[in-house]
Design a protein that fits this description.
Elements (H helix, E strand, L loop, with lengths): L2 H19 L3 H13 L4 E7 L5 E7 L6 H8 L1 H9 L14 H8 L7 H6 L4 E3 L6 H10 L7 H4 L5 E3 L12 H13 L3 H16 L3
Parallel strand pairs: 3-4
Antiparallel strand pairs: 1-2
Length: about 210
């Protein structure tokens, strides 16, 4: 059995198990989001998957409804901070995040719906970050040394968790993240995937 076949079996088992274990969240979290900031409760965002194909990534909505408009059209200071921070802003410094959203993000609960991306075969439990296409384009210009890493990153499915997510998360700059993601893709193996999965709960709790 090939690596990809073994990994797909693990993805299906782990994703299905987590969906069942956290079944109450699929009822509770949407209700809380509706109370906190209204509809919709699921946020979809276009990301780049394996082979460079676009797909819609699912998340529980943790931001205000016009978050992208605020970032790219109404708040130039915030956009500058976003880009200077390698396309990331600390939750406590981001005015677009709702009160409930801060809690969801602190425990990575907002990312639970990505389990359905795994079931659909668009993502894996473990893999590189699911990047935004424009992010890859702009960041590879900012960090020219990362251009050689992009083909490797896009040679595998993006993951809910991965090497850099369990090794410092937002504190790691894009060039180091790209290097780690590419190294994962080059040296992918089931043992490493399992080790990353086992480290993930600790990484999630460390955000709190």
């Amino acid at each position: 059995m090939s690596y990809d076949q073994k990994k797909r079996i693990i993805d299906l088992i782990v994703a299905t198990t987590l969906i069942l274990v956290f079944a109450p969240f699929w009822i509770l979290i949407p209700i809380l989001i509706l109370i906190d900031s209204g509809w919709p409760v699921i946020f979809t965002h276009k990301r780049v998957g394996k082979g460079g194909a676009d797909f819609e990534l699912f998340k529980f909505r943790s931001m205000v409804l016009n978050a992208d408009e605020i970032l790219h059209q109404k708040n130039h200071k915030l956009l500058k901070k976003f880009k200077s921070g390698d396309w990331k802003i600390e939750a406590k410094e981001d005015p677009r995040i709702t009160p409930l959203g801060r809690f969801l993000r602190s425990f990575t609960i907002d990312e639970f719906p990505q389990l359905f991306n795994v079931l659909k075969g668009q993502m894996s439990m473990v893999g590189p970050r699911a990047y935004v296409r424009k992010e890859l384009e702009e960041q590879s210009k900012k960090y020219p040394s990362t251009k050689k890493h992009i083909p490797y990153i896009l040679s595998v499915k993006p993951g809910i968790t991965g090497p850099w997510q369990t090794s410092g998360r937002n504190e790691i700059p894009f060039d180091k993240r790209a290097e780690m993601d590419a190294a994962y893709a080059k040296n992918k193996n089931i043992k490493n995937d399992i080790l990353i999965l086992l480290r993930t709960p600790k990484a999630m709790l460390s955000k709190w």
